[in-house]
Design a protein that fits this description.
The protein has 351 residues and is α/β, with parallel strands linked by helices. Helix content is 45%, strand content 15%. It is built from 14 helices and 13 strands. Helix 11 packs across helix 13. The termini are close together. The mean pLDDT is 94.
């Protein structure tokens, strides 16, 4: 995988750097020698960002993606080569509770970062990270391709569909004849150490397992394209490199998901977690009558594989094993910063 050498000395601007994926991305880019400026809300007290002490290694700007003036200034001042937009309200259930906030953050936040990009002469590569849930879900048993209709059902998914459309409009309206390449990335459900978000399967598994109680699963029969967080992040970095080098050939939308055998049900995923955690860990099916969630969702990643040369590295078993290794270290008071770096090195060596 060519991107580690490419990013040495590159200036990268990341929105949402204090979040779960943003923290892994920051650590990965630091390992590649990049200079990072991050823009995001304050990290929660229990967060991967704080555990890794990332604030001492990057320029961290605490701000709201909805604050256009502050965001534009921050992007211009950074003089970045590459911008990766990850800031979002990322939770489906929270989007039902706070739909207006979700749309403001995910749609207008995208408008604001693209307005900032218009005033940033240095950036040659821009990536908007969305989700596999942008597609109109017809419960098909085959993967969605990048040319399928966009129409998310719930406020989170729909706001991300809108974010895709906003990016498409700006790309064609303002950057068609510029030197800046623009793309969007749609990834599957990510797992990995350091996610402490509410209503996510792996953080729930780790918490209940750590206190010796049965893991509660809301919908064990829903199928999702689960993958380790490093999988999609490697795709993002490969894409931003390719389009930095050749705008016209690589701009566009790309799916980053696991191979078919790693698309498993939530129950199967939890079975793997319990097996790797050991100590008699088990789970129970207990629906809480929550809002609508899709039953079957899978991505077709043929484009990323053929055009970019990206391939998944860790299958679902390996992804769960690495995730359990991380949370076991955390709940036993181990050095998760050292372990995070070790997992990044292991991943890069295997590519």
């Amino acid at each position: 995988m060519p991107f580690p050498d490419f990013y040495n000395g590159k200036k990268v601007f990341i929105t949402g750097h204090t979040g779960f994926k943003g923290s892994w991305l920051s650590r990965l880019l630091l390992a590649c020698g990049a200079e990072i400026t991050g823009y995001a809300l304050e990290a929660t007290e229990q967060s991967l960002y704080n555990l890794l002490k990332l604030g001492k290694d990057i320029i961290s700007i605490i701000g709201d993606i909805r604050d256009r003036e502050n965001l534009v200034k921050s992007v211009k001042d950074s003089k970045s080569d590459i911008i990766i937009h990850m800031a979002a309200q990322p939770l489906v259930r929270k989007s039902y509770e706070s739909p207006a906030y979700t749309f403001e953050t995910n749609v207008m936040g995208t408008v604001n970062i693209l307005e900032a990009l218009r005033e940033c002469d240095s950036a040659r590569s821009f990536l908007n990270v969305t989700t596999d849930k942008v597609y109109e879900n017809k419960e098909w048993h085959w993967g969605y391709r990048e040319n399928e209709p966009l129409c998310g059902y719930d406020p989170y998914s729909n706001s991300k569909s809108c974010s895709e459309l906003v990016t498409y409009s700006y790309k064609n309206s303002f950057f068609k004849d510029s030197n800046t390449a623009i793309s969007t990335a749609r990834s599957g459900n990510v797992i990995g150490g350091g996610d402490f978000s509410k209503d996510r399967i792996i953080p729930d598994c780790a918490y209940y397992a750590s206190i010796g109680e049965p893991i509660i699963i809301r919908n064990p029969f829903s199928t999702r394209p689960y993958q380790h967080v490093l999988e999609c992040l490697s795709g993002y970095l490969l894409l931003t490199q390719r389009q930095w080098e050749n705008k016209s050939e690589y701009s566009g939308s790309y799916n980053f998901g696991p191979n078919d055998k790693s698309c498993v049900t939530t129950g199967q995923l939890t079975d793997m977690f319990c097996r790797f955690w050991g100590r008699g860990t088990e789970w129970i099916n207990k629906s809480d009558g929550g809002p609508h969630e899709a039953n079957f969702l899978k991505l077709d990643c043929s484009k990323s594989k053929s055009v970019l040369g990206w391939i998944p590295n860790w299958d679902i078993e390996k992804a769960v094993q690495k995730t359990v290794e991380w949370y076991t270290c955390y709940y036993n008071g181990g050095d998760v910063s050292l372990l995070t770096d070790k997992q990044i090195i292991d991943y890069l060596k295997n590519n």
